[in-house]
Amino acid sequence: MLTISLMSSVLEPLLLSLLAGSSTAVGAMIVILLRRISSRVVSFSLGFASGVMLLVAFLDLFLEAVGLLTHFELLLMFSVGAIAMIVLDVVLPHVEPGTKGPNSESYEKEDGGDVFQTGVHIRAQASEPGSRLLERGRLIALGITLHNFPEGLVVAAGYSYLPKLGIIIAIAVMLHNIPEGLATAILLRAAGMKSPKVFILTLLSGLTEPLAAFISAFAFSFLSSKSIVGYSLAFAAGVMTYITADELIPLAHEYGHKHTVSISLLLGIMFALLVDTLLS
């Protein structure tokens, strides 16, 4: 009986995070199949994902932790989650998805031709060779991989406290990973990488998430004290808030369409509220 309970507590968050993590490949498939993507669509999807992530971070994770921790513990663990992501960004070499480089010029092949036909205006240093673009694309995939690892922990932490919360977080992360995968695939295709490799690389970058969820869920199945759960929820809230503020919202604005980003962010908050109500 104990074994069945342990398997359930580990397997279910693992499957949720697998669904959320592999959604980076969904974004890649959109790029591969459509080839032309409106910059407004990219801005909207990133803004929408930002709204969902922010609401889940504060309404679900943060407020649930309030009932389990003192205010000092809450502030401390929220800060630790955000600082951990800052350290990860600074220490480990990677590049985050983006449309602009130092000189804000279009990506070009060495012969000056266009590298990838898409409605999104991709930018970087002028006349940057395809090999450098490819390296940049790989570093972006590495950046997503690094961010997906703590996201797996977030899903597991939420699920260990309340299964409904784990589902809500998984939905939020999935909606965040699709436009991330889209932005990465655009750059990899611009560098000349073949479609199957683009799909595989974006898929693999998301699979660190279920790995982290498996490790975390297994640990949480033995560490179920009120304080440990509260620490995990507050830490997860800091992680999600930092990812949204540092990555999603700035990237959404890089594609332009300021009002589209603002409206879609509000729609994302409303959608998350609706999902939270339906699952209650």
Question: Within the largest sheet, what's the order of strands?
Answer: 1-2
**Spatial extent as radius of gyration:** 19 Å
What's the rounded overall pLDDT mean? Answer: 77
- Element order: H for helix, E for strand: HHHHEEHHHHHH
Percentage of β-strand residues: under 5%
Biggest sheet details: 2 strands, antiparallel
Q: Regions with pLDDT < 50 over 5+ consecutive residues? A: 101-128
Shape: globular
* Number of helical elements: 10
The total beta strand count reads 2
Tell me the number of structural domains: 1
First-to-last CA distance = 28 Å
Helicity level: over 70%
**Helix vs. strand class:** mainly alpha
Give a topology summary.
Elements: H1 2-21, H2 24-34, H3 39-66, H4 71-91, E1 105-106, E2 123-124, H5 130-161, H6 163-190, H7 195-206, H8 208-220, H9 226-254, H10 258-279
Antiparallel strand pairs: 1-2
Mind explaining what this structure looks like?
The protein is 77% helix and 1% strand. By secondary structure, the chain is mainly alpha-helical. It has one domain. Helix 1 (2-21) packs antiparallel against helix 8 (208-220), helix 3 runs antiparallel to helix 6 and helix 3 (39-66) packs across helix 10. It starts with a helix and ends with a helix. 51% of the residues are buried. The model is unreliable at 101-128 (pLDDT under 50).
Concise account of the structure shown:
The chain is an all-alpha fold and 280 residues long.
